[in-house]
Amino acid sequence: MKIVNDPNFRQIGEPVPGGIVLVSDHASNFVPEDIPLGVTQDQLNDHIGWDIGVAAIAERMARRHAIPAHLAAVSRLVVDLHREEDHAKLIPQDSDGVLIPGNLGADREWRLERFYRPYHDAMAAWLDAAQPGLIVSLHSFTPQLADNPDEQRPWEVGLLYNEQGEAARHAIRLFQEYGLTVGDNEPYSGKLLNATMNRHAEAHGRPYLAIEVRNDLIRDEGGQARWADMIASVARGVRELV
């Protein structure tokens, strides 16, 4: 299996024209040594540092289901690859109540040039070469936010979309057939938070599924295996319908 390891991204497998591919902007909690963020490793291992479980699911989907992946190789606390370049939280100064001291006064343009643009440029080239029939954009969400403990998050999985919702609606139905509680533009709205798919999918008319899995379900190998199998099955079903 072809694997590409770059300082800003990792690619696993080779796309097939018209097939399914996977991308994940928050698949790593790695912080380069020359960027002291001032947070602990335990904090980086939590949901503020990355999307828990998605890297393992993506690797399993690439190896077991022939769904190649393009994965981020740096933490969302270094630069949030799932934001527009001018977004206020591109370099977060705090996350879920945790202060990120090393991001106060950070050089925005330097981080864009070093991390953000190479990641998205590589994704664009990869997708242009692949011409996929469906893109899976994989994320996970925490069951409860520390800075909003009263918010209820009952969904096991959510589908996000902006203007292009046909694929998401098919996926919602297919996940519901597993007996799951499925969020429709929950726990976040794709009308507001859909930067990577707006850029790489909707702007090119490419069908996509922006999937958010609740991270308490995918913290161990068993949960990751179960969800990799389900997501692959749903993606294949949607691919036949769009």
TrEMBL record:
It comes from Croceicoccus mobilis. Pfam families: FGase. It comes from the Bacteria. This is N-formylglutamate amidohydrolase.
